[in-house]
């Protein structure tokens, strides 16, 4: 059986070498390119099972590349892991359709966990968010946020949020 193909798009040679070695050790055939434009071209040629891309790349950034992967006929079957030294790029990475995001530097264990393909077993039913029990007061007002039992407002704007997105923490 042929090894699955991984497309590694990383402009830093040292990082590309380390991630490439980890991929090879995990049984992947690795094709490495150093910019997003070449990555996009190779994506169409290779139709890889895995794409690991830096977010900040010359030519075409990783989030745009990820969106291109998702538009391809094979895009749903391709696992995409985006990496960056900037943790502020986590949300844009996941919004672009990445299966996982890793902040650099990352450990070998976290990298291998991120590239692991989802199981072929049917997904379990999603767990509903936990209910939030608010104190007896009708409204909590932590610095600019107003939360009551019926609505949520932030700086006078109505927000639709879930517990998974918004958590109250005691100071």
The shape is globular
Largest sheet descriptor:
5 strands, parallel
In whole angstroms, how far apart are the ends? 55 Å
Give the proportion of residues in helices: 25-40%
Topology:
Layout: E1 5-9, H1 13-25, E2 29-33, H2 36-46, E3 50-54, H3 62-71, E4 79-84, H4 90-95, E5 100-103, H5 108-115, E6 139-140, E7 145-148, E8 152-154, E9 157-158
Parallel strand pairs: 1-2, 1-3, 3-4, 4-5
Antiparallel strand pairs: 6-7, 7-8, 8-9
Helix pairs in contact: 2-3
Quickly describe the structure.
With 171 residues, the protein is an alpha/beta fold. The protein contains 5 helices and 9 strands; from the N terminus they run βαβαβαβαβαββββ. The strands form 2 sheets. The protein has a 5-stranded parallel beta sheet, sandwiched between helices. A 4-stranded antiparallel beta sheet has the order 6-7-8-9, with no helix packed on it.
Give your account of this protein's structure.
The chain is α/β, with parallel strands linked by helices and 171 residues long. It contains five helices and nine strands. It has helices at 13-25, 36-46, 62-71, 90-95, 108-115, and strands at 5-9, 29-33, 50-54, 79-84, 100-103, 139-140, 145-148, 152-154, 157-158. The chain has a five-stranded parallel β-sheet with strand order 2-1-3-4-5, sandwiched between helices. It has a four-stranded antiparallel β-sheet with strand order 6-7-8-9, with no helix packed on it. A hairpin with a 3-residue loop joins β7 (145-148) and β8 (152-154). α2 (36-46) packs parallel to α3. The longest helix is centred in the first third of the chain and has 13 residues, at 13-25. The protein is globular, with a radius of gyration of 20 Å. The chain starts with a strand and ends in a 13-residue tail after the last strand.
């Amino acid at each position: 059986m042929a090894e699955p193909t991984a497309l590694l798009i990383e402009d830093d040679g040292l990082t590309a070498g380390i991630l490439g070695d980890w991929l090879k050790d995990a049984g992947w055939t690795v094709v490495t390119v150093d910019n997003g434009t070449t990555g996009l071209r190779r994506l169409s040629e290779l139709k890889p099972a895995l794409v690991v891309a830096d977010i900040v790349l010359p030519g075409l950034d990783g989030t745009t590349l990820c969106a291109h992967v998702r538009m391809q006929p094979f895009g749903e079957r391709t696992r995409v892991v985006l990496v960056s030294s900037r943790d502020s790029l986590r949300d844009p990475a996941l919004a672009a359709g990445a299966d996982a995001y890793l902040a650099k530097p990352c450990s070998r264990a976290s990298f291998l966990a991120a590239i692991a393909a989802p199981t072929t077993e049917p997904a379990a039913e999603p767990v509903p968010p936990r209910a939030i029990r608010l104190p007896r007061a009708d409204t909590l007002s932590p610095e600019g946020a107003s939360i009551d039992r019926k609505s949520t407002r932030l700086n006078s704007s109505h927000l639709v949020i879930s517990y998974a997105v918004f958590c109250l923490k005691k100071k």
